[in-house]
Design brief:
- There is one protein chain.
- The protein is an alpha/beta fold.
- 39% of the residues lie in helices and 15% in strands.
- It is built from eleven helices and nine strands.
- It has helices at 6-20, 44-55, 65-68, 76-84, 97-106, 121-135, 151-163, 213-219, 227-230, 252-255, 262-280, and strands at residues 33-38, 59-64, 89-93, 111-115, 142-146, 166-170, 185-187, 198-201, 237-240.
- The longest helix has 19 residues, at 262-280.
- The relative contact order is 0.16.
Length: 287
């Protein structure tokens, strides 16, 4: 998120809204090829990128961890320099932010961060798009994120600085975000959900933290988003990046309830990423 200016972010969201409304006919990926590197399992990310690339006129090659073995079979930089000769855009869903940074530093073509352990900006683009659809704006919208200080909360915090989003991150001590930008509140007080326009949560043990699952279940036990918690913010919608561990961080009653917008979020991954790719390939107008 921090690679975008506030104006660039707003333009991407405007374009995403135009694409979703059917007001965009551009084919900026026509005769272009995208390489997608996936070191992590993927459902929404892979499908939404593949569909989006196709709708923008492009083609893609999806490479798994075993196909490339970044940093093992060859260096990240060497892999980047090879892909540079073949493709016009690289999408990386990698285990390490350092590896993604090295990939981007060595490649001449644009590199999109589709997830690392530190950040998940494409998901947050979809979240911001969803909030814009619901509230008509982002500045001053109060978002209560309840859960782990992980890649989602990190990227939300960066987005808050760009958009004026009023973000509070709520979680148990010891699991707060490592980076806390100015203007973002971090607390262990669940009462801070009061007045929220949206309540957001994520799994308690993200990819890469599976070995901590038992300890995390105990630490986060009191931070489940349930009907009682949502009652503290009666006007709030519920958000989740998915996949959800039902019965852990959220109850069925909430995720399947009238306040839930989780599948609107999932759908918006497609439009947000299409807008980002169009902007990166120099075709960011809605014509």
């Amino acid at each position: 998120m921090r690679d975008l200016t506030a104006e660039e972010l707003a333009a991407v969201l405007d374009l995403a809204l135009a694409i979703k409304a059917g007001g965009y006919r551009g084919r900026p990926l026509q005769d272009r090829h995208v390489a997608m590197l996936f070191q992590r399992p993927s459902h929404r990310t892979r499908v939404s990128f593949e569909v989006g690339i196709g709708r923008l006129g492009g083609r893609w090659t999806t490479l798994s961890e075993q196909d490339v073995q970044l940093g093992v079979r060859e260096s990240v930089a060497d892999a980047a320099r090879v892909l540079d000769r073949y493709v016009d855009l690289i999408v990386g869903r990698l285990k390490s932010q350092a590896a993604l940074d090295e990939l981007a530093g060595a490649a001449d073509v644009p590199v999109v961060n589709a997830l690392t352990e530190e950040s998940h900006p494409c998901q947050i683009l979809a979240d911001l798009l969803t909030l814009r659809e619901i509230k008509g704006r982002l500045d001053g919208v109060r978002l209560a994120y309840v859960g782990d200080g992980n890649n989602i909360s990190n990227s939300l915090a960066e987005a808050a600085q760009l958009t004026g989003l009023d973000l509070v991150v709520i979680g148990p001590p010891g699991y707060h975000p490592a980076r806390i930008p100015n203007g973002v509140e971090v607390t262990d007080d669940l009462a801070r959900v009061q007045g929220a326009d949206a309540v957001y949560t994520d799994v308690w043990a993200s990819m890469g933290h599976e070995e901590e699952r038992s300890a995390r279940l105990e630490a986060f036990r009191g931070y489940q988003v349930n009907a009682e918690l949502m009652a503290g913010a009666p006007q709030a919608v519920f958000l989740h990046c998915l996949p959800a561990h039902r019965g852990e961080e959220v109850t069925d009653e909430v995720i399947d309830g009238p306040a839930s917008r989780v599948f609107q979020q999932a759908e918006n991954r497609l439009y947000a990423q299409m807008a980002l790719m169009a902007a990166l390939m120099g075709a960011g107008s809605s014509a």
